[in-house]
Amino acid sequence: MLAASEVAREHEHLIRRSAERARYQMTPEEEDLAARLRPSGAGGWSKLHGNVSSQLRGEFRGESLPVTALRALATDPDEGVRRDAYEAELKVWEGAEVVLAAALNGVKGEEGTLAARRGFPDAVAPSLLTHGIDRETLEAMQGAVVRSFPDFRRYFAAKARALGKPKLDWWDLFAPVGRSQTEWTYEAGTRFVEEQFRSYSDKLGDYAARAFTESWIDAGPRDGKRGGAFCMGWQGDESRILMNHDPSLDSVSTLAHELGHGYHNLLKAPRTPLQRETPMTLAETASIFCETIIQNAALEQATGEERLYVLETQLLGHAQVVVDIHSRFLFERAVFEGRAQRDLTPQEINDLMTWAQRETYGDALASTHPYMWAVKPHYYSLSFYNYPYTFGLLFGLGLYAQYQAAKERGEAADFQRSYDELLSGTGLADARTLAAGFGIDLHAPDFWEGSLNVIREQIAAYEAALA
Ligand SMILES: [Zn+2]
């Protein structure tokens, strides 16, 4: 087929992926039945989780608040507020645990049964196909991740000292440390982003300028607008971005992140729609890279309390993506194993969540959050919608480290050319092949260690800034 058709050859990667997926299929009748039962099975359970959890409210100091507002208090500078909000939040989840546990059992029961009937060796296997990496890559990455936990525990210990406590509690994970002297208004953010993107390349700087002058970005929060941030491809090489700016470096980082997605869309624009399909593991490369440009520039300019603030912004995010996400992976895998035997009770699910948090945070925390399985919508949709974030962060950081090395050798332009080619080709080959173009072996621990070393340096700087 590939020899006979030019169009087929242009879509070779996609065809090979489809052929690989086709090896894991039930009979056509069984696939048909499974698809028809989806809305009343896992699809229905997932919807129930969304609908129930979005209505939940809790009591905070005599006031009724949506559970999302309770969770947002985790960033309050006052520990009493954070602790009371955490306790109120746990009560809310406890009140809904029977319904939410039924939803989790429903989703994981169906996914696990289908994976086994389709001939996958375990519940992780289908996610590897979806996310476009092989098991050796996942294991090399996770091995390096686990080896970094002692370093992250040093960060948690340092943060506890900064907050004047012997040990961090769960409600302190998002507590602010340091102070920003810069007023990160949206306008200041756009100027900073354009300037720093331009210090990387004119092409990236011009891209940001174009997004600003052509008003591609819906920037501020307003009534009736949803939260969060995302970027979507629009016509031609254009993109549109939704975000909710608040005056913080974190928000400016988000702006850079979403523009990174847009830049990726720009480079994929000449490809056919099928050639643009990018697995989630590679979809976050450009966004993390752009975020790193901004955060490193902010760090270079910062002194004193501001420096601490920038480092805290970086490390708080990295701890989520490296440590917390690994707890979510361990938990999800254990739920699949347990659910294969029978329905799990809310208490059993809580115990698995607590176990997974202890395995990853270790003794760095004095308390855990047994109901995180009720909080995160990811457990109720695509399986293992977690480790691709870690891959994205570490792959983006690793490429950034390569860029810095190339710049020192006076070869920045060569790097930029290869990097643009990689982004343009994220639908043309798998991650391992694309990485090999940079001399990177995703099966070797070295690459992952290199990315984690970037974070280790930030942890050391954070400790030094607090000393
Ligand atoms: Zn993103």
Which SSEs are present, and which pair or pack?
Blueprint: H1 6-10, H2 12-22, H3 28-37, H4 42-55, E1 57-60, E2 63-66, H5 67-72, H6 79-95, H7 97-117, H8 124-131, H9 135-147, H10 149-162, H11 186-200, H12 202-213, E3 217-218, E4 230-233, E5 239-242, H13 249-268, H14 280-283, H15 285-301, H16 304-339, H17 346-361, H18 372-375, H19 387-408, H20 412-424, H21 431-436, H22 445-466
Parallel strand pairs: 3-5
Antiparallel strand pairs: 1-2, 4-5
Helix pairs in contact: 4-7, 9-22, 10-22, 11-12, 11-13, 11-15, 13-15, 13-20, 15-16, 15-19, 16-17, 16-19, 16-22, 19-20, 19-22
The structure holds zinc ion.
* CATH C-level of the domain at 125-214 and 248-467: Mainly Alpha
- Which radius of gyration do the C-alpha atoms yield? 23 Å
Distance between the termini: 65 Å
Secondary-structure arrangement, i.e. CATH architecture of the domain at 125-214 and 248-467: Orthogonal Bundle
Largest sheet geometry: 3 strands, mixed
The global form is globular
Alpha-beta classification: mainly alpha
- CATH fold-type name of the domain at 125-214 and 248-467: Neurolysin, domain 3
Name of the CATH homologous superfamily of the domain at 125-214 and 248-467:
Oligoendopeptidase f, C-terminal domain
% residues in beta strands: under 5%
Following the backbone from N to C, one meets helices and strands in this order, namely HHHHEEHHHHHHHHEEEHHHHHHHHHH
What's the total number of strands? 5
In what order do the strands lie side by side in the largest sheet? Answer: 3-5-4
- Please give the count of helices: 22
Oligomerization = single chain
Give the integer mean of the pLDDT values.
94
Helix content: 55-70%
GO molecular function, one term: metalloendopeptidase activity
Pfam family, one: Peptidase_M3
Organism: Deinococcus terrestris
Protein name: M3 family oligoendopeptidase
